[in-house]
Amino acid sequence: MSTDNDTDSGSNSCKAPDSDGEVADDIAIVAFERKMDTAEEIVDGIGDRYESVEILAYHGDVFEEHWGEYDCFVGLMASGIAMRKTAHLLDDKWDDPAICVVDEELTWAIPITGGHHGANQVADDLARMGAVPAMTTASEAAGKRGVEKQAKALDAHVVNGDSTVATNLAVLDDELGPVERLDGPRAVLVDDDVSVLKRNGDDGVVLGCGSVAGTDVEQFHAAWDSALDAADCDREDVEFVATGTRKADEAGMLEAAEEWGLGVVAFEKETLTEFEGPSPSRSKELIGWPGVAESSAIAGGREHELLAEKARYDEAVTVAVGR
């Protein structure tokens, strides 16, 4: 049984645009017959987040039979079973499908291979259903955002996956700094400890956003919808939400973006100053920061263009649209 959210999902290959990154588009839930009701619950609970979700009945060779057809297997079973049945299939972490196991009561979601290649993503999504994501990858365990997760927030993928060993260590030591952006046409020469991110799509818009402290999720959603309407765009057009580092921990914005399936990218003051928007900014006068909404929308857009100037909604959220 499957649910398809994309007419092109029938190819069923390990085709996530970043096989060196963490995105899983096509997943398979492997379940014993007695657990099929729970498998159906998982489809209902998280299926809208994937291009396709298929349920496979467990038998001894099910993983081997379907290896390479999906970006991530969700094993509705004990972790030991999944480990024993897939250990001999594992070859290269950049190419192998991810594996996440979950118990029948949906208490724990445990990535066992490919944490940064889809398993952590699935575990995070299962948390919406009450499961506790038990992640052991170093950056997540430390509560920090690894390079692969930063790539996802930018709707991008890591081109040179082996580099993330060094760059994620730098993340743990707070030494990596923000993602640097290079617009082409250019040629770039990098060492093995530099992760190169490439954006997945050719178009799309960026929501530049600022807010007052304590703004709730509904206010963000209403403001974003209004801004998109004004720009003649839809939610599906949004690549990510952009803001400034001083607003990066705004809980309502982070939760609102999560509910829309978007990442949040926070730009440093220097970057925002480089891409300062045309509208006057009170924050520039008071604290020396350019207006966050317009400058982050311009900085985040691939064309560095402002599609819609900033507007303030509900006296709480300021939004601009960039491309």
Automatic annotation (TrEMBL):
SUPFAM superfamilies: CbiG N-terminal domain-like, CobE/GbiG C-terminal domain-like
Domain Cobalamin synthesis G N-terminal residue range list: 62-140
Pfam family, any one: CbiG_C
PANTHER family: COBALT-PRECORRIN-5A HYDROLASE
GO biological processes: cobalamin biosynthetic process
NCBIfam families documented for this protein: PRK05788.1-3 (NF004465)
E.C. numbers: 3.7.1.12
Enzyme class of the recorded protein, top EC level: hydrolase
Protein species of origin: Haloarcula limicola
Protein name as annotated: Cobalt-precorrin 5A hydrolase
GO MF annotation list: cobalt-precorrin-5A acetaldehyde-lyase activity
Residue stretches of biased makeup (Low complexity): 1-13
Record-annotated CobE/GbiG C-terminal domain positions: 205-321
Cross-referenced Gene3D superfamilies: 3.40.50.11220, CobE/GbiG C-terminal domain
Region entry Disordered, spans: 1-20
Keywords, ordered alphabetically: Hydrolase
